[in-house]
Amino acid sequence: MVDIIRALDWTYVSTIASEGSYGEKGVEAFTQLSKEAGGICIAQSLKVPHNPKMEDYDKIIQQLLETHHSRAVIIFATEEDIRTTELRREKNPLWSNCDEVVLTGVFPKPCSSSSTSAPPPRRRCCRFPFISCRSESVGNWSGTEPFSPFSSVPGFDEYFTALTLENNRRNVWFAEFWEENFDCRLLSASKKEDTSRKCTGQERIGIDSKYEQEGKVQFVIDAVYAMAHALHNMHRDLCPDHPGVCPQMESTDGKTLLKYIRNTSFNGSAGTSVVFNKNGDAPGRYDLFQFQMTNSSTTEYKVVGQWVENLQLRLEDLQWPDGEQEVPISVCSLPCKTGERKKKVKGMPCCWHCELCDGYQYQYDETSCRLCPYNSRPNSNRTACQPIPIIKLEWHSPWAVIPVFLAMLGIIATIFVMATFVRYNDTPIVRASGRELSYVLLTGIFLCYIITFLMIAKPDVAVCAFRRIFLGLGMCISYAALLTKTNRIYRIFEQGKQTVTAPRFISPTSQIAITSSLISVQLLGVLVWFAVDPPNTIIDYDEQKTINPKLARGVLKCDITDLQIICSLGYSILLMVTCTIYAIKTRDVPEDFNEAKPIGFTMYTTCIVWLAFIPIFFGTAQSAEKLYIQTTTLTISMNLSASVALGMLYMPKVYIIIFHPEMNVQKRKRSFKAVVTAATMSSRLSQKPSERPNGEAKTELCENPAADPMSQATKKTYVSYNNLRI
C-alpha cells in the first residue's frame, strides 16, 4: 500500500478505519511504514465506531471534505462500513452539485477488504477510481481479513456443492448453515424461529440456493496445511520412528509449534509457494485491480499491476475522473516554484509554505535562500547569481550630448577669439586688454571646455589622471588671471589716492609671474593628491543598487569621491571669490577707464552659477542617476563659467576688431602721473556732498581754483584721459 502511494506521488493522505483490531491495527501499520519510508504524511485518521449511526458517516465525509488537499484516502474497514460511507458520500449536499466542489474527490482504497462490493461511480465529475488487491498468500496470523477479488480453489465447488446432511455429519455447524442457506427448519433442535418451512434434506447447494465460493477458502486451506506441515515436521524431529504422538510432543509449548509453523514451506492451493518470514507474515503477492469503465459503458475490474516484493504498476492503464491522463494530486503543499524556498510547517514534514527569495537573494537549496555577493544579482529564476552589468556615461546619452555640444561651441569660440587676438596682436585693443594675461585667461577657458570630454570618456588610469589634473586647472588658470587683473587695477587706483608713485609688480612680466605662482598652488595640490592616492578606476555597485535587482548596475568610474572633487575645485572657488571681492572694490572706477566692470559682471554671474551647482551636486548624492546628474551638472557649470568669461570679456573686443576697425585706433598717451591724478579726481567727485570739504565742491572747484591743489590744466587732463584704457 505504501509503495502504491509513493508510485502515485501522493504525500498527503487520510485514513479511515473500522473500530477494532483489523481497522486500527491496519492504519497503525500503514502509518508506521509511511514514517519509515518517509515522504508520506497522514492528514487525519478517522475511525468508524462500533454500531455507527448515519450521523457518524456524515461526519467522516465532512471531515474529509475539510482537508481538501488530502484527496487520497486509505481505508481499513469492513465491507458494510465502506458501502455505507460511499452511499452517504453520494447523498452529501456538497457532492450533489460537483461544479461547486473545489476538489475532485479521488478516494483510492488500495488493498481494502471490500473494494469489489463498493458501488460503481455515478457522477462523472465525482468519480472515485478504486485500487484493490488480490492476495495470493495466506496472509498473517493476526486476524487480518483476506483481500478481494479472489481466486477460486479448483475442485472446491464440486466438493462443497456435493455436501449433504447425510455425508457431512462430522461438522457440528453444518446443520445450522443448512437452515440459513435454505431458509427452513430441521426437526431436531432447530434454532431458526423466523420460518415455519421444514427442511426435507433433499435440498442441494447451488441448485436450491445461490452459491459463490467464499473468498477466504484458499487461505483456510493453506492455513490448515501450514498447521499440518508444522506438526509433521515436529513429529519427524521429536518422534523419529515412533508412530503417533510421543511424550516429547506432548510436553511441547506453543512457542515451539510457532517456530515450526514459521519454518514451514509448501505449495499452496492457489499454486504459489507458502512461506513465512521471521515475523510470521507471508510474503506479499498481489494482483492490483482498478474498477474501470469499459468501451461498452460497463464497469469491470482490470489488472493494472502486481506486487511481488516490489511494485510493478502500469500507470498508463489507470483511469482517472473526467478522462484525465495525469495522476490526481494528493499533496499537502505543491512544489515551490524556482526561486522559492520551503518553510516547513511544524510537525508536518510534508507541508510547507513557499517563500520567494526576495531582494538580492537566490535559492541555495529547497529550504534556504542566500545573499548574492556584492557584485552579483540573482538570475531571472533566482537559482543562482550572475554578475551585475557594468555601465558608464555613454557619448550618445542625453546626459552627455548637451555638455559635449556646449563644450564644442565653446572650444570653437575660444579658438576663434585666440586666432583673432593673434591676428590683431599689435592693435590697440589687444594691447590695451593685456595680451599676456589675455592669452593665459583664454587658455584656462579652453581647458574648462576640454574637461567635459575627459569627464565623459571611458574611465581608465590615464583618463583618471588627466581628470585630476585638469578638473580644477582650467578654472584655476582663468580666475588666477582675472584675480591678477583686478588686483592690479585695485592697487593702481588705491595707491593713486595717496601718492603719484606707481605700484610695484604691475608690468606684464610681473603679472605673469603672479599668475603662475597662483596656478602652481593648484598643481602642487594635485601632485600631493597623486602621491597620497594614485589614480585608479573602481566599479561602484552601491550607487545604482536598486530595490529591484533587475535594475541594479555597477558604475565604472574613477576613484574620486565627491569630497575630493569639491576639494579640487575649492582652490579655484577661493580665487573666484577673491576676484569677486576685488571686482566689487573697483566698481566705482570710471566706466571707460578699465575692465573692472566687465570683470565684475563676469564674477557675479559665475558665483550664481556655482551657487546653483553645489546644492544640485550634493542633493543628488543618493540618487540612482547620480552618475549622470553630477557629471552633467559639473560639466555644464564649467562650460557656463567659461562661456560667461569669454562672452563678457572678449566678445565685445572681437566685435570691435572685426566689425568696427575704425574704433581700434591709438589714443593719446598719458603719463602715470596723469592717470593717478585722474583717479584722485574721480574719487573726490564720487564723494557725497556732505563729505566734501567745501560744500558744493563741484561748483567751487570751477569758480575758485585756489580751493583745490588741482590746477585747471589738471582738470583738463582728467577730462581728456577718460578715454584711456588700462
TrEMBL record:
Residue ranges of every copy of the G-protein coupled receptors family 3 profile domain listed in the record: 399-673
Keyword Lipid metabolism: no
InterPro entries, sorted: ANF_lig-bd_rcpt (IPR001828), GPCR_3 (IPR000337), GPCR_3_9-Cys_dom (IPR011500), GPCR_3_9-Cys_sf (IPR038550), GPCR_3_C (IPR017978), GPCR_3_CS (IPR017979), GPCR_3_mGluR7 (IPR001883), GPCR_3_mtglu_rcpt (IPR000162)
Region (Disordered): 683-711
Sequence ranges of Basic and acidic residues compositional bias: 689-701
GO cellular-component term (any): plasma membrane
Record's subcellular location: Cell membrane
Gene3D superfamilies noted in UniProt: 3.40.50.2300, GPCR, family 3, nine cysteines domain
Keyword list, A-Z: Cell membrane, G-protein coupled receptor, Glycoprotein, Membrane, Receptor, Transducer, Transmembrane, Transmembrane helix
Highest taxon in the source lineage: Eukaryota
UniProt keyword annotation of Transmembrane present: yes
PROSITE patterns: G_PROTEIN_RECEP_F3_2, G_PROTEIN_RECEP_F3_3, G_PROTEIN_RECEP_F3_4
A GO term, aspect molecular function: G protein-coupled receptor activity
Pfam families: 7tm_3 (PF00003), ANF_receptor (PF01094), NCD3G (PF07562)
CDD domains assigned to the protein according to its UniProt record, in alphabetical order: 7tmC_mGluR7
Membrane-protein topology: Multi-pass membrane protein
Membrane-spanning residues: 399-425, 437-457, 469-490, 563-584, 596-618, 638-660
Annotated family: Belongs to the G-protein coupled receptor 3 family.
This protein's name: Metabotropic glutamate receptor 7-like
Organism listed in the record: Nothobranchius furzeri (Turquoise killifish)
